[in-house]
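thoughts on my protein:
***
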Amino acid sequence: MNTNKIIRLLIRQIFLLLLFINHIKSFNLDVANYIRHEGPDESMFGFSVALHQEQQRSWVIVGAPKADTSQFQQGVRNGGAVFRCDISDDNRCQIIHFDSNVYFNQSGNENVYQLNNQESLLCDSMKTLQRSVMLNIRNFTKLNYVNKWKRMMNDNDCCFIYSAYFDPRLQVTVKYFNKLKDMSDILAIGTIRIIGAMDWWMPKSNFQCHFIFSNGQIKITKVLEVSQMHEPINGNYPGFFIICPVVFLSTHDEIKLPQYIRIANKNYNSHLEDFIGISYPSTANRNNDENSIAICPGPAQNHFSNALRIAEFVEIYKILGISKFYFYNMSISDDVDKIFRYYASEGIAEILQWNIDHVLRMDEKIIHYYGIMATLNDCFYRATVIDNFKYVLIADFDEIIHPLHTHDQLTDFISAYDKSSYHSLLFSNFFVFADFPADFSNIPKNAINKYLYTQAQVIKMKHSTGDFKWFRVRTKFIAKRDFVIEVGNHYVWIALSGTKEFYIDKKDAVIFHYRDNFIAGHCDKEISKDFSMRKYGDQLWSKVDEVCGKVFKVGLCPRFDQNKI
């Protein structure tokens, strides 16, 4: 029989098979060769059964809706359980422990991501895996790792890293799936996102992720992606994201995740001090209020010494409903350090050492504005990954968001304006320059710290900065945990597809930008008086005086200019 006849015969057989494929409704059951698994009595073990496959591994997932869970869940006796059973041996099943303290994105807003069918199926598979492993992260919280800038490779000044975060968002992970599926010992339950800065001319194709586990074992994989943060390219060392896969070690009863990571372009044994700690969701002091907000100012630098401004900044935002403050300390006075430490001791602030000036010269030709893009993105992931904040406000120490009319708190404002398809809320900027005469007409008689920007400076520019130029000029924003991938200084740069920013009308809320000096090109001839912030005056003065009285002996928070009054 020649080749053409063979091909025609095969085509006919395939055609006949396709004709009958829709009528096949049965399957073979091997009654001679089988695996037997038995579960606890009266647990309804076997109520549901599914085959789970992950790379080269397969096991059977078995549901037991009446299993006794009293030893795992306090106060719950028959909460039901899911078991992972060996596919090749009898009676080898292990209960899968679900850690309720670990956050994974199950917000129910997946529809706005606009994934295609294949990506949706991949996300469902990843979600099953994410739920079916026991993440051994409790011991990570005991590391007390302090982030600081480090060279990626000891013999090279090309690259520096500061922090690394476990990103559990599956809609972010799915874009790397084609790379993940070709790797061994990889869990498609998220990614490791590293924040750093590097010479943007540096070749990055040969970067590797080096991981260390609690037992000292090292694993090495290739980097999934290296991407530059969006910022003015007037420095040789812009901020970068480096994305690594999630590697693991498997034991008889759990899957362990790595504790430390570094980036290198060659294989060699590294010392522990070369690595940085990986930040996972915290199991202690974790925010559980879905509507709470954290705030991320830029780095405090140039020996920042205005302690009173910090006290006013924190207290006005506490009144407005902010729950957590992140202070990045590059260069501050002793007085500001005392204020920072006071709020940290109160449990509402975290102080991060921003030692980038120890590894790079602070010059705009080298790095843009003290590495602010890396600061803000580190803060966003710290607030959302570790502390579980759904909303993060990006605003500097001299910028105050002011909800107008009916909403006195930002939490109430967000509840009224936010929608599931928004990745951020954008606010217009109005300059309030301290060069204009101050108005002290409403100072309480018993006030000790008399000069508060929000109460004394009432002359503002009549028009927002967006009225003259592009509407996003000098704006500030509230970013949402589930959707934002990269934040900027004035708006979100990258978010998940299908989401959008919402521009808040200036009649509803604005940013008051309390600058100490005029800015060329941002001072129009029209000014107006605005006393709307004075509704917080009595409460604000009381809180500021209380804090300053606790921190400083005479009750005065020092300012950079004590002769203002």
